[in-house]
Design brief:
Helix content is about 70%, strand content about 0%. By secondary structure, the chain is mainly α. It has one domain. The chain is globular.
Length: about 130
């Protein structure tokens, strides 16, 4: 499967606009909650970005070369794997949270890291 296979129609295409409206009409509470969560995650991303800056993801590179991108994506993989392992402990194995990071916090971090990985892949990180 190529990276392009997973791409959606442009958000302004008639097909995508109709699909979105149909989904929102059929599932109004779910789609409203989805939008709310996206906004919360975007706000969290912006707060953390101002604290960390872009170098925590780019590892001091400009994310321009193939090697730079691989380094950033590898770092993101480790961060995402940490969250997946945490979720495994809490959700799958039913262990208690002993560090004060909720299941929802872990899902949120994992989601944001996924978006950051896409930004890096598209060559827009830190720009």
């Amino acid at each position: 499967m190529t990276e392009q296979t997973n791409q959606l129609q442009p958000s302004n295409s008639p097909i995508q606009m109709n699909t979105t409206k149909e989904c929102e009409a059929q599932y109004p509470e779910m789609t409203a909650e989805f939008k709310k969560i996206l906004k919360e995650q975007y706000d969290l991303f912006c707060r953390k970005q101002l604290n960390y800056g872009p170098d925590n993801i780019s590892v001091g590179t400009r994310c321009e070369t193939k090697e730079d991108l691989k380094l950033s994506q590898t770092g993101l993989w480790f961060r995402m794997n940490d969250k997946i392992q945490r979720l495994k402990q809490l959700v799958v194995l039913g262990k208690d949270d002993t560090v004060g990071e909720s299941i929802q916090d872990s899902y949120c971090d994992l989601s944001v890291y996924g978006i950051i990985a896409q930004i890096v892949s598209r060559g827009k990180w830190g720009k």
